[in-house]
TrEMBL record:
PANTHER family: MAGNESIUM-DEPENDENT PHOSPHATASE 1, MAGNESIUM-DEPENDENT PHOSPHATASE 1 MDP1. This is Magnesium-dependent phosphatase-1. Transmembrane segments: none annotated. Residues 8-17 have a biased composition (Polar residues). It comes from Podospora aff. communis PSN243. It comes from the Eukaryota. Coiled coil: none annotated. It holds the Pfam family Acid_PPase. GO terms for molecular function: acid phosphatase activity. Residues 1-37, 143-167 are annotated as: Disordered.
Length: 249
């Protein structure tokens, strides 16, 4: 079986970032118990965040590394990993479940979520997304935990997330902007997403690990090229990049 490889170093160099500044750090401003600054600074936020799958939402190639059938990992509650035919374990990047939980729990549906992936195994990807579940609540000390504690008890507006006593959502359920998972150009993915959601390209923020997919910027989409998967730090950098492109930061 091919080894699951990190893409972090290559993409960091493409971005012009140094390896010491982009990581799954637990010490960044968006990994503290206080609210993420991008939620409290009163500046605009993108209406739609779109994610690639392979080496963006999860650290593997869906069409190479997984051998079907898959099943939930034993002893995982909520299901945070799946096991394939060979007994290999697969899960999202470490901070991704909590990021998805936060974004899908914002009052009033401030930010919608969608998937745009060129994976040729769309049904398998959907099965993984249906099997994995998000944490039911944000653990203390992670970004957004204070805000969600307020919104889930009625103090922060419309409730979209689950309380800590409930079973977490299936990961697939938070992507209310749709899932475009098939081979072809990302331009096609975004054209379909835009028609479905009615959201202008300029209001979209896209996270992907492949430089050629920056072609979506010709539509007006902001793309954040990431090196080692979705993290709190990459999320913040992407939002800052989107704001700069809109002339508001």
């Amino acid at each position: 079986m091919p080894r699951k490889l990190s893409k972090r170093t290559t993409t960091l160099l493409q971005n012009g970032d140094s390896p010491s500044t982009t990581s799954h750090s637990t010490t960044s401003s968006t990994s503290s118990s206080s609210l993420p600054t991008w939620l409290t600074d009163s500046l605009p936020l993108p209406r739609l965040i779109v994610l690639d799958l392979d080496y963006t939402l999860w650290p593997f190639y869906s069409d190479i590394h997984i051998s079907t059938p898959i099943r939930p990992a034993p002893g995982s509650n909520p299901t945070s990993a799946v096991i394939d035919r060979n007994g290999e374990s697969f899960s999202l990047y470490p901070e991704a479940p909590h990021i998805l939980h936060l974004l899908s729990s914002l009052p009033g549906g401030q930010i919608r979520l969608a998937i745009a992936s060129k994976s040729p195994v769309g049904e398998l990807c959907r099965e993984v997304l249906k099997t994995l579940r998000l944490p039911a609540g944000m653990p203390a000390g992670t970004a957004g935990s204070t805000m969600l504690a307020g919104s889930e008890d009625g103090g922060g507006g419309a409730k979209r997330g689950s309380s800590s006593s409930e079973k977490g959502k299936k990961v697939i359920e938070v992507f209310d902007g749709g899932l475009e998972i098939y081979e072809g150009t990302k331009l096609r993915h975004f054209e379909v997403i835009s028609r479905r959601t009615g959201i202008p390209y300029e209001q979209m923020l896209f996270f992907d690990d492949e430089r050629p997919n920056r072609e979506v910027e010709t539509l007006g989409v902001t793309m954040r090229l990431i090196g080692d998967g979705l993290s709190w730090e990459e999320l913040e950098k992407g939002i800052q990049q989107w704001r700069r492109n809109r002339g508001v930061a």
